[in-house]
Amino acid sequence: MCGIVGYTGHENARDIIIDGLKKLEYRGYDSAGIAMQSKGELIVRKQKGKIANLEKTIADEHLYGTTGIGHTRWATHGVPSDLNAHPHVSGDGSIAIVHNGIVENYVELRRQLTEEYGVVFRTDTDSEVIAHLVSVLHKGKLEDAVLEAVKRMKGAYAFAAISKDEPGKIVAFRKDAPLIAGLGRGCNFIASDIPALLKYLNKIYLIENDELVICTPEQIQILDQQKNPVKREVLQVTWSLEDAEKEGYEHFMLKEIHEQPKAIRETLTRRLDENGRIRLDGISLTLEDLEHFNKIYIVACGTAYHAGLVGKYIIEKMARIPVEVDVASEFRYRDPFVDDRTLFIAISQSGETLDTLAALREAKRKGARVLSVVNVVGSSVARESDDVFYTWAGPEIAVASTKAYTTQLICLYLIALYMADLRGTISQSYYQEVLAELQAIPDKVSTIISRAGEIEELAKYLYNRDQVFFIGRGIDSAVAYEGSLKLKEVSYINSFAIAAGELKHGTIALMEPETIVIALATQDFLFDKMYSNIVEVKARMAHVVSIAKEGDEKIREESTEVIYIPRCADEVTPLLSVIPLQLFAYYVARERGEDIDKPRNLAKSVTVE
Ligand code: F6R
């Protein structure tokens, strides 16, 4: 998705902004641009393609200015092109803006601006209207023009503007799209995301909806729409620059796979008190609350939704409360049965996914209590929830989610155990057993990662196939969906996941000699059933790669290959079985030479519908 960076200070804004934009490359983009105040004018350079292209183009120019804004664009309205790239500039060249999100009434605004002010539009974007609108309303101060402009704009957006006539000033506004302001030394910043600023500072303000920021080298002012000053706590960012750098790994995806033992440990141990009991910081659920709920909805998108599928199994098994899992884009439009007896759990790495946010609002409107599992502190989902449970995964840069998924699972296990304990639906010995299993997970993940070479070899052998099936039963089927998504998004191989028992109801028709089937067989109590499914596909000459627990020798009889995970309780296998699948997706994509961290057509955080 699009990214915004703005700098005002005493150094050349060009290099600082370009550097900040590079830190946002992971979010996905198709063009980039920069605008700076320079000698009473605005200089604008923008270009389709990578930031490196833009950098090359401007390398020999002596662009200098100490205040500027930059943008990475992910096309929504209008194709990726030099013209449609941001910043957009008003007709008289006095105002430049960069914009994330959507201006829903841009057609109407375009018509008005054309008819009333004779504005000539040069691009196909919705964003261009903002530059013209601010410009025609700009009578004195930029902040007043921006506040007037947003009164006329509908949609979900964040944007930043500079004027050629107000040196050193950046004005930004937020409505339903992320925006932060960063406190530097002798300089200040605005940005859409924290990683853009980590090199320069660790103190930020989270800007809320309908708030305006005025940023100068000396200060950051936050105002509401009536221009009243807003008092905001400074947030100390705990993510380090190293967290957002590759540190010698070939790709962020591989680095983040390797970071999982640490991230899981962090997410888990912060929630255990000195007596080894779960302490749900940020969640205030009481037994009375739990007795009041008659249903839980878990709603999310993509990988986070797959974490929710595991959540259903464990919450229902342990806490004995019915759980429905839904993708946010479906939930929000289907008038679901939600009322004040519903606990709604939103899962989101970024906390900015528009569909998840909209589903959360819909659930809240209907009276549900909202609990969210989120990675980005202060994100929209976090702010709009009644209770927030953070995954301490650190920044996830690769588009394909790995450590966010496993830490989301940890949060769901903790929530399930906590609820079950309060409700008395599990024994104390079971509670302690599962906690011990969870505490052993980081080392077991490290063991699997240390054997990555085996999976790399397998990937070298299988990388050129054009179709892969993932099958599993029970909680394994939830992991099958995630394995399949991982593979298709980074390698572009057509992959398909199905509950193994469903095979014979249609999909088995697709099995032919050498079809690749990845069979998850980690559930002891379902082993025989799963074994039969493996026999079924093997009888059609499929190439079966089984994922099983160490010691399950029988599975070798029918599998072409077996990848073993360390022994553990059935309940916690998803935390281990997904690791070989992440590695498999990674190595297959690498063999195929794909752009692993930034797969085509994908963005890290989907802030549009
Ligand atoms: C896949 C992936 C996506 C996200 C989905 C939700 O690897 O990363 O499927 O899981 O877009 O994003 P968040 O968790 O930020 O709401």
Please explain how this structure is put together.
The chain is an alpha/beta fold and 609 residues long. It has three domains: 3-243, Aminohydrolase, N-terminal nucleophile (Ntn) domain (Glutamine Phosphoribosylpyrophosphate, subunit 1, domain 1); 252-449, Rossmann fold (3-Layer(aba) Sandwich); 452-591, Rossmann fold. 35% of the residues lie in helices and 22% in strands. The protein is built from 18 helices and 24 strands. The strands form four sheets. An eight-stranded antiparallel sheet has the order 3-2-4-1-10-9-11-14, with helices on one face. A six-stranded antiparallel sheet has the order 5-6-7-8-12-13. α4 packs across α5 (142-152) and α7 (260-269) runs parallel beside α13 (403-423). Fructose -6-phosphate is lined by residues 301-304, 348-350, 353, 356, 400-401, 485, 489, 605-606. The site of fructose -6-phosphate (F6R) has 15 residues, from α9 and α16.
